[in-house]
Design a protein that fits this description.
Layout: H1 2-7, H2 17-28, E1 34-40, E2 44-51, E3 56-60, H3 66-75, E4 81-83, H4 89-92, H5 95-102, E5 105-109, E6 121-123, E7 128-131, E8 134-140, E9 149-153, E10 158-162, E11 165-166, E12 169-170, H6 178-189, E13 196-199, H7 204-214, H8 219-233, E14 241-242, H9 243-249, H10 258-263, H11 271-283
Parallel strand pairs: 3-4, 4-5, 5-6, 10-13
Antiparallel strand pairs: 1-2, 2-3, 7-8, 8-9, 9-10, 11-12, 13-14
The chain binds zinc ion (ZN).
Length: 286
């Protein structure tokens, strides 16, 4: 199919059925992403990914440069892109050094362009950014920071959401309002259950300890919490997770669920107020 598509422009018969078929094949060609998790600093995950058809190699939120360049070198992958979700130092700290070493293109949130070192391409809500033969849909998701974005590769079922949504948690509300944050999380929640959530930190075990204090009777949450404890005891990563399991167990995605509302003493409450209450409880949870 790929060979047929490659020669399509050379076929000499205008309007010929075979040519139309070939062009359709080109248009619907699908691809994959090979995604590698690189743990850096105390609990950050940097995601290195390759789109095999084009050879495009992207780094999502490079906190640092050295370990990322080393991993890419080891795999003989040439870094072509950096995709930033927000401006925090543990997400952009490696930008300039990686760009200097590779000449890559830096993509980041338009609303935060002044705070993204070396930014080349500004993207905003609803944009579709072409990464090799794959495509990311951009979601503007303020709350943790005022300019935060997420990259949703729908076809490859990969969501890179930085510090907006964590496994069993969400980011601290540094620059946003509960209304903004709840709206952002609700939009991510609307994505399909089988999307994988590639967040930027290994916070899952402490998030689980908090989550079970909110929803004491959520059987799926209790089971997940036990599985997380077992994984961490073996030193295993708990990220990526599945969006479907976040929907079923993450209290920050469940502020409109009666059990969560009742658990924080706000039965029938406004989801924004319930979200704010859960977020506040987490801020002071020890
Ligand atoms: Zn952050």
């Amino acid at each position: 199919m790929a060979i047929l598509a490659e020669f399509a422009p050379l076929l000499p018969w205008p309007g010929d059925g075979r040519r139309i078929t070939a062009l359709l094949a080109l248009h619907t060609m699908s691809t994959t992403l090979d995604i590698v998790r690189i743990p850096v600093l105390s609990d950050n995950y940097v995601w290195l990914m390759r789109e095999p058809q084009s050879g495009a190699v992207g780094v999502v939120d490079p906190a640092v440069a050295g370990p990322i360049l080393a991993e890419a070198e080891k795999r003989r992958w040439k870094i072509t892109h950096i995709l930033n979700t927000h401006h925090h130092g543990d997400h952009v700290g490696g930008n300039l050094e990686i760009k200097k070493a590779t000449g890559c293109t830096i993509v980041g949130p338009r609303q935060d362009r002044a705070r993204i070192p070396g930014i080349d391409v500004e993207v905003d809500d609803g944009d579709r950014y072409r990464f090799g033969e794959a495509e990311a849909e951009i979601f503007f998701v303020p709350g943790h920071t005022s300019g935060h974005i997420a990259y949703a590769f729908r076809e490859q079922k990969a969501l890179f959401c930085g510090d907006t949504l964590f496994a069993l948690g969400c980011g601290r509300m540094f620059e946003g309002t509960p209304q903004q944050f709840w709206t952002s999380l609700s939009r991510l929640r609307a994505l399909p259950d089988d999307m994988r959530v590639y967040c930027a930190h290994e916070y899952t075990q402490s998030n689980a300890r908090f989550a079970v204090t909110v929803e004491r009777d959520n059987r799926k949450l209790i089971e997940r919490s036990a599985a997380i404890d077992a994984a961490r005891a073996k030193g295993e990563a708990t990220v990526p997770s599945l969006l479907g399991e976040e929907k079923a167990t993450n209290p920050f995605l469940r502020a409109d669920v009666p059990a969560v509302q009742a658990a924080v003493g706000m039965a029938g409450g406004d989801p924004v107020a319930v979200f704010a209450e859960v977020r506040q409880r987490k801020d002071t949870f020890r």
